[in-house]
Amino acid sequence: MALHRGRGIATIEYPTGMNQGGDPSQAWIKVKPDGHVDVFSGTVDVGQGSKTVHTQIAADMIGVPYDTVTMNNFDTDTSPVSFGTFASRGTFIDGNAIAVAAYRTRQRLLEVASRMMEVDPEDLEIADGDVAVLGAPERKVSVAEVAATASWTYGEMIVGSGAWMFPHVEPDKETGECEPHAAISYASCVADVEVDDETGEVRVTKLVQVYDVGRAINPTLVEGQIQGGAVMGLGLALLEESYPYYPELSHRGPEFGAYAAPGMADLPELKNVALEDPDPVGPFGAKAVGEMANNAQSPAIVAAIHDAVGVWVTELPARPERVLRALDESRQPRRDGRRVIYDEHLSVAVVSTAENRAEGTWRFPLVSE
Amino acid sequence: MKAVGASLPRYDGIDHVTARSRFVDDFSLPGMLWAKAFRSPVASARIVRLDTTRAEAMPGVHAVITHADVPTNVVGHQEVWGIAPDEPLLAEHEVRFVGQLIAVVAAETEAQALDAVQAIELELEERTPFLDVRNAWDAGRPQVTPDGNVFFYYPDQPQRQIRKGNVDEAFAAADVIVEGVYRPGAIEQAPAEPAAALAIPEPNGRVTIHSTSQALYYSMDITARHLRMPMGMLKFVGGTVGGGFGGKIDTKTEPITAVLALKTQRPVKWRHTREEEMLCSTTRAAWHVEIADAVTNDGWILGRKTLTLHDAGAYMMTSAYACSKHSFHLAGAYSIPAVSFNTFVVMTNHVPTAAMRGFGVTSASFAVETHMNRIAQVIGMDPWELRLKNANRVGDSSPSRVVYGNPSTVSTLLAAAEAADVVLPPDERAMTNAKREGALLPAHLVEQQREPVTHPLVWRDNRPALEGGV
Question: Which member of A122, A291, A344, A369 is catalytic?
Fold first, then answer.
């Protein structure tokens, strides 16, 4: 028995927002007479912290302290449309809707403050909960005073609404041509593994991960997405399977005790880096990190296994049995002239018994020379 | 600016860790009934007889619903995108997967509901299930749907296809053609909080539904279609969810409890058991991806052909969406001037598959990146160099001709090398995301270059510029 070390790399890209767009989000904001801000948006915080990020966006866009902003996403009677918390769209698309609503709320506060202070709104700025004259910061009124004056003196209301959508596109039937997403995020991953050539067990010892997130609205929550994604990617690469004998149906695990999700003992050393190359369309330059965070690990780990013991495992998860089988068979790609053919035994060309292998505009095997 | 960019504590963090946050299952009401499901024991069968009479007479039982109780039983998760609905909320004349919903009981306690479920009588005529996507075109295969086992995007074209450049020329010009097969498996979303719903009939005819949905308006739309009620007659309550990872887009507990609540005029709660969450709710799909790349000995990828078979499971759910998305990302983070991609939605008798983190692209990233590492092996090139050389750059275009305005493949690679203490040669370290030129702009990459487009809404000085008609 021997432990073999190996290293593998992967680079990925991932779209922000729903594929082909057409997924709107809306928000509205009101300011209470004491200056507290209520944000309404039909978003769902699935645990990733979207309420926190959306509150940060609203607070800075209006110019009030974070802890004076309340996020209301409790029901569809009070909150406007969010298409949903999926497709890595929460920070970007919901965030843009909230940012636009907050920008308009800010404009309303400036209008009212302008009347109170008899200063042109263009010459006013809001920061830290105060509306002050540009260049004369001692001349100021608080957002609370502005909101109170609007309510009790002018008999008016301070609200703002906003919406954002990347328009729906249809791909061309023949070529697929279309612009299907609002932005693209990028990541690279380096995996270090140890492979036991007797048991087939693979242990990931270290993951180095770099994500370009445009702008980290909340760096701790970005780190949380990257760490959580790493654990999920590990499960996908090495452990988890709904059908242990896929495609057969038997031996499905009905509980966590019979389904190998990663635990803390599986966690490798993590070194995570967030790059911030601002996106021109995302709120404060932010783009998505949520989903892509579990995509880069499995190819990096599979490459590291190859680096360690010289076999490719391309059916996931790369569980011990698959690693041992690959070692036993020490499969080599078939060479046929210029062609280098890996995994032939898994291909449609071998498994299918269909006689007519050409249908319309496609045919398999993929390359026939 | 103070909040943006700061690691502020989570808005609801203290409430979550002190168990004060309220999730759907924390709500109960006087007179509330509990729902339990009766499900298919087999993967494929014709329903010969279904009899709920005995169950209806059981102690504490207020209702047993079957497909006949659902105003619009068959609703699709992609109807907004023009995909025909195919999935019954409750099975009608057949079952297509183990765990498919057939009937649901509402009783005064969960135990009574479970007893009644066991009293439901079912007679099936079992059929051979269809399980291996690679046999989708074989003669004599079992049929999953009356329309066959392969979805058609267009009446005369089953696949989502992407075509760009001249693939035949690329393959003719290649020094080597590298082929491989990639099969990432099905896995569970496995959120900490199983799916649950509590439906409350209101005196004014409306229905309030506490939901674990990841998408309140989307699930409300699907529920309204099932109930044949305007969305305005429903009120969804939620927004705080114990993990979803894509699995809580599927909308089952909401319409079921709503039908039961309207029938019994009582609040009705249904919470999936962990077993139901693991065995009966959707999974991430298993995928079969074949790639053939036309490569030169000095590491240029001239062209790529792919064949993808997506195991949709027994009903469509969001598979057509996923396969389109998958297809747009089969070049990965690289500029490949000639591509021919074919992606098929294949129906099987597995549990329907649906969204999970990375939907449609996780499989593409695994296949593409493993293939890149193999190409590096075949031509004997360092995998960093192969990637940096082919990395998409400003002005390059994607398979669907999206022009990359600010790609960061090169910058994330260089940062990863630095963080992993990999010392790259100086010419590689000097690379940037900027437009290709010189040795990095060989003849085959000239034609795919485009002028970057500008978007209607952009941010300037940390403010949204509104003239785009927001």
Answer: A291
